[in-house]
Design goal:
heterodimer, A: alpha+beta, D-Maltodextrin-Binding Protein, domain 2, Dipeptide-binding Protein, domain 3, eight-stranded mixed sheet, four-stranded mixed sheet, 26 strands, 21% strand, globular, disordered N terminus, B: alpha+beta, MetI-like fold, 2 domains, three-stranded antiparallel sheet, two-stranded antiparallel ribbon, 58% helix, elongated
């Protein structure tokens, strides 16, 4: 009898391995699943979504591009997770965590009995291994910077099989947020290549699915170059609904590679994809018109956390750019920047570029980031008079034909570079061109290929002004450190400052450093408000607007709860399911 | 003979279009760069003769567009007040033909109403004005580039046909090289070598030069053929016998034979070069905002939502079609004239 049972198990295991598609596995005793509070769904179906471009890799440590991270996010899981809807941290692979009184020691308790998508157990060794890789300078992980607090890497120590201790060199505000999106990796598969110094090569797109395993709701099934990536259910996933059904509900998740937004819109209209994210306002308006008859629903989630801005080149120039150097005398004049800011008609940008689905901005924090936005930050309305006064007091004058002249009698003329792939930013530039022509400035709009824009802004400094966008990752101020610290890698207007170039940049440096180690929300908020006010007063960026997050989905999708944080639509993919028949409207407010 | 009315019609259409484009400053009601931010993507203003009470007016009138609340770029006519269309109306100052200061525009309506004969674009700019102003750029580019091509073609063709031997051989191999060039890719490559930030005038002349110098090969070959046949005629050989110089023979006996072919080529090349300019601008390699050209105007259609939502954005294409058909009709006419069928 006993022997027969083991033969049966063997057959089962074999068929599982041979046919790969495995149903959700029964919950084992001692397996500490997380229970979700979503509506109970039905198993089955393939969800199809579109991506702008192919992921470059599925290696969670070296992936830096958005498409790669979007797929990897579905294949892997983190210890502590930021809930995209509530924007608060919640336990994930960690069942709970504790912080010492001085804010320096984190003790994380792992869930018991969890398994990777290949059925192998997950425990503290995998956590320690993962952090070892992230912190290894030779691997060049993009997340390493986050894990270096006060100049020292976080220390990771295994206490027992299900407990890990993290020691920080100094207190760090909202430290639990750094665990978000740090994928836990299987030691049993990756330790060998890591030790051989081959880590950067593991988990390429062409790697056999059998050599990959993660803690995410899905696991790799198939990659068709130039067409799609198909993921299948992770049968051992560690979340279950209230009826103890192991998630995810979907059998498969497919990412199609669809070149541009317009092509995505056409695919979505044709019913070839189920979800469409990051719609432009024009396409949102177009698609919403016949949404009811096509069985789709669209959602305006309110302003995103992204901020669009105009930035002037204040960099220390390399040689051969004398014509730019001459113009920097204007750009460095704070009154010039204030005048430009005052002349820009932000309401028109929201109206014409975002078709009203957006919000005008005067600071870097979006109005939808309620926890951190400075409520008393001034929102001066557009005023050409004020702009003219500012220019006059800075020594500018006007020629008889209305052209603006500087102190030396030179005509004020500059160009704004934007990316050709982003029609909206080119539109903003055209509106600004018209706004500034009313001040007598001669502005040119130069659309360039996206890579060329990045190259000029980050490498050669061969530009005068540019329109770009930042933010959108997290609501917390810490990811913004890179932008506002004078030594930061995204300190766009003046990169590579060894010491702060101006007194106000020094002031921002101090405030940002202070808020990073301040553990109390109220004090931290006060510090960050001061940062926002200093930035707004000195206008290194001329903030323009933030677009609303606009998404759409077929009405047959259950538990669809888009959020303003990335990934807007797939963050709860394990809970998504297809409703029977025509379905009722998906969640959210249409 | 039987084609005559058609040719006359084409000629009149072409001439009036060219005149309108040349006098764009007078014919158009608005400056092509002025943005009406309250009227993005407004459809063409409707011209009425019958008012809401059923009265017929001799003078056409328009209603103002009013944005429909809570919609995206949808408009209704505000029927409460009508605005008659006025001719020779005072408007923004312009310099007619670059000399005469004037405030007079061919037609218009009084403020606050506006007349958009071909609707507006994403910034609320009058599309009709932009088409005519854009025509100046596109047509001038086509005509100038044609002149360059024909001049080069004439020079190379004459020399090659007249002197023959190794000059002919090398010139004709060069012609073949230019004929097999995939010109669109070549243009893209040339444009990418040029500096990014150059003034609209510079861009314009660069475009013209590039387009013009690429297209000389075909006319050169045709001219060479004519020259070859002309120079072997008896009276040409005789004139050489009387001691005529090369220059005299070319001018007096050979060149007159090429005029017909040059005219036909011109009529064929102009529309082709207008389209070349449109193609380059469509791909973002032409003039930059806010200067209009037909290619720039048509580039709006690259966005899917514009393509399917706003039919009046196709209007520049109509102008392009008219110009192309007109010129092709002219080419036919010239050819028929030569063969004596008219």
């Amino acid at each position: 009898m006993h022997r027969w049972r083991s033969v049966a198990t063997l057959v089962l295991v074999c068929s599982g391995a041979c046919f790969a598609a495995l149903g959700p596995q029964p919950v084992l005793r001692g397996e500490d699943l997380q229970t979700t509070d979503n509506q109970i769904g039905r198993y089955g179906g393939t969800l199809i979504v579109a991506q702008r471009s192919e992921p470059k890799t599925l290696n969670p440590v070296i992936a830096a591009d958005a498409p790669s991270r979007e797929v990897i996010g579905r294949l892997t899981a983190d210890l502590i997770h930021i809930n995209r809807a509530s924007q608060q941290t919640e336990p994930a692979l960690a069942k709970s965590w504790g912080i010492s009184k001085d804010g320096r020691i984190f003790t994380i308790k792992l869930r018991h009995g969890l398994r990777f998508s290949d059925g192998q157990p997950f425990n503290a060794d995998d956590v320690v291994f993962s952090f070892q890789v992230y912190l290894d300078e030779k691997v060049h992980s993009s997340q390493r910077d986050l894990l270096v607090v006060g100049g020292k890497p976080i220390e990771v120590q295994k206490i027992d099989q299900y407990m890990v201790r993290f020691t920080l060199s100094q207190p760090y505000a909202a430290a639990e947020r750094i665990f978000d999106s740090l994928a836990m990796m299987p030691r049993h598969l990756l330790e060998k290549p890591y030790k051989e110094g081959q880590f950067a090569q593991v988990w390429a797109l062409t790697t056999s699915p059998a050599e990959m395993a993660g803690m995410g709701p899905f696991r790799m099934k198939e990659y068709v170059p130039g067409q799609k990536i198909v993921l299948e259910r992770n049968p051992y996933y560690w979340k279950a609904d209230q009826s103890k059904n192991r998630l995810p509900y979907l059998d498969e998740l497919a990412f199609l590679f669809v070149g541009n937004e317009d092509a995505q819109v056409i695919r979505f209209q044709a019913g070839e994809t189920d979800i469409i994210s990051r719609l432009s306002a024009d396409n949102y308006a177009l698609l919403s018109k016949d949404a009811a008859s096509r069985g789709t629903a669209f959602f305006d989630l309110g302003p995103s956390l992204e901020y669009d801005f105009l930035v002037f080149n204040l960099n220390d120039l390399k040689k051969d750019t004398d014509n730019i150097a001459a113009k920097q005398a204007w750009f460095r004049e704070v009154k010039f920047r204030q005048a430009v800011s005052s002349a820009i008609d932000r309401d028109s940008i929201v109206k014409l570029v975002y078709a009203g689905h957006g919000a005008a901005l005067w600071g870097n924090v979006s109005p939808s980031n309620k926890q951190w936005v400075d409520q008393v930050l001034p929102h001066p309305p557009r005023s050409l008079e004020r702009a003219r006064e500012l220019l006059k007091s800075a020594g500018f004058a006007w020629r008889a034909d209305g052209a603006l002249l500087d102190r030396q009698g030179k005509v004020v003329e500059f160009s704004i570079i934007t990316s050709t792939s982003n029609a909206q930013r080119t539109k903003m530039a055209t509106l600004i061109q018209d706004d500034l022509s009313k001040l007598g400035m001669n502005v040119h709009v130069v659309p360039l290929e996206f890579r060329a824009v990045l190259d000029r802004v980050f490498q050669t400094y061969d530009y005068e002004a540019s329109i770009m966008a930042l933010g959108g990752g997290d609501a917390d101020p810490n990811p913004e450190m890179n932008v506002w610290l004078s030594s930061g890698g995204t300190h766009l207007w003046h990169l590579g400052e060894s010491t702060p170039a101006t007194h106000w940049e020094a002031q921002i440096d101090q405030l940002m450093q202070k808020q990073m180690v301040q553990l109390k929300y109220k004090e931290r908020k006060h510090l960050y408000d001061q940062v926002q006010e200093t930035v707004a007063a000195n206008v290194p960026f001329i903030f323009l607007a933030t677009p609303d997050v606009l998404v759409g989905a077929t009405r047959t999708l259950g538990n669809f709860k888009p959020a303003i944080l990335d990934p807007n639509t797939l963050w709860n993919v394990e809970q998504l399911y297809f409703l029977p028949g025509n379905g009722t409207p998906a969640g959210g407010k249409p | 003979m039987r084609n005559k009315p058609r040719i006359v019609a084409a000629l009149i259409l072409l001439l009036s279009l060219h005149a309108a484009i040349l006098l764009a400053k007078f014919v158009t009601p608005y400056d092509p760069a002025v943005q009406n931010r309250d009227f993005p993507f407004a459809p063409p203003t409707r011209i009425h003769f019958v008012d809401s009470r059923g009265h017929v007016h001799l003078r056409p009138f328009v209603y103002q567009w009013k944005a429909r609340p809570d919609t995206f770029n949808e408009y209704d006519e505000a029927r409460d007040k009508s605005y008659p269309v006025r001719f020779f109306i005072q408007g923004p100052e312009h310099k007619l033909a670059g000399l005469l200061r004037s405030h007079v525009h061919l037609f218009g309506v009084e403020d606050p109403a506006q007349i958009f004969l071909a609707g507006t674009d994403a910034y609320g700019r009058d599309q009709f004005s932009r088409i005519l102003y854009g025509g100046q750029v596109s047509l001038a580019a086509g005509l100038l580039a044609t002149v360059i091509s024909l001049f080069l073609g004439l020079v190379v063709g004459c020399i090659s046909g007249f002197y023959g031997r190794w000059i002919d051989d090398s010139a004709m191999r060069l012609v073949e090289l230019f004929l097999v060039l995939p010109w669109l890719y070549f243009l893209l490559a040339v444009r990418s070598f040029l500096p990014l930030h150059i003034s609209p005038t510079q861009t314009f002349f660069l475009l013209v030069t590039v387009i013009g110098t690429i297209g000389w090969a075909r006319p050169a070959r045709l001219v060479r053929g004519i020259v070859l046949s002309a120079k072997s005629r008896n009276y040409v050989i005789a004139s050489r016998g009387f001691g005529a110089s090369d220059y005299y023979m070319l001018r007096r006996h050979v060149l007159p034979h090429t005029y017909g072919i040059l005219l036909t080529q011109a009529a064929l090349l102009v529309p082709q070069y207008v389209v070349a300019e449109v193609t380059l601008s469509f791909l973002g390699l032409g003039l930059s905002e806010p200067a209009p050209s037909w290619g720039n105007l048509l580039a709006n259609l690259q966005q899917y939502n514009v393509l399917v939502s706003y039919w009046w954005m196709f209007a520049p294409a109509l102008a392009l079609v008219i110009v192309s058909l007109g010129y092709l009709q002219m080419a036919n006419a010239v050819q028929e004239l030569q063969s004596g069928s008219i």
